[in-house]
């Protein structure tokens, strides 16, 4: 057999195998292939906090989105001088989460999912003293936004540093407790699970 005939038979065999694979439903990968240089990666390393506009050095932790998880960033939030600092602090922290990340934070891969129109108010009659009411039902928020808010509120000294938040919406629904666990930090999409917000006991 001549070399040319051998080459022809090998080529035909390859074509037959390829057609057989296609007939069996084998699909090409949907993962994009980068034929150029290595894809860029974000560091998720928190930059130095911005200086406080008031000149005070007090900072607090907020949780921003980085990649598919949450990461802690320090932000300048002067302590509230109100007799009850809970609501002013909750509003200040929400404002920080709604604030556009700095250029350094964006470069490191940080972003925020909090809606700009979200507002927070204090507890209603019958709510636990540590409850906060949102202008949007917690379960209607994007999962990452709810996780950011819960973990940021749960890390606040002024709010009790409970690693949780008791949140309700604008309606008559009962406020629920949302815990900021390691699973929530690593996978904020857990907020899509209906059972994440535990109903409060009658003891509150």
Structure report:
- With 204 residues, the chain is of the alpha+beta class.
- Helices cover 27% and strands 17% of the residues.
- The chain has five helices and eight strands; from the N terminus they run H-E-E-H-H-E-E-E-H-E-E-H-E.
- It has helices at residues 3-23, 86-98, 103-107, 143-154, 182-186, and strands at residues 59-66, 69-76, 110-111, 120-121, 131-134, 164-168, 176-179, 198-199.
- It starts with a helix and ends in a 5-residue tail after the last strand.
- Residues 5-40 have low confidence and may be disordered.
Keywords, please?
204 residues; alpha+beta; five-stranded mixed sheet; three-stranded antiparallel sheet; 5 helices; 8 strands
State the gist of this model.
With 204 residues, this protein is of the alpha+beta class. It has helices at 3-23, 86-98, 103-107, 143-154, 182-186; strands spanning 59-66, 69-76, 110-111, 120-121, 131-134, 164-168, 176-179, 198-199. The strands form two sheets. The protein has a five-stranded mixed beta sheet with strand order 4-5-6-7-8. A three-stranded antiparallel beta sheet has the order 2-1-3.
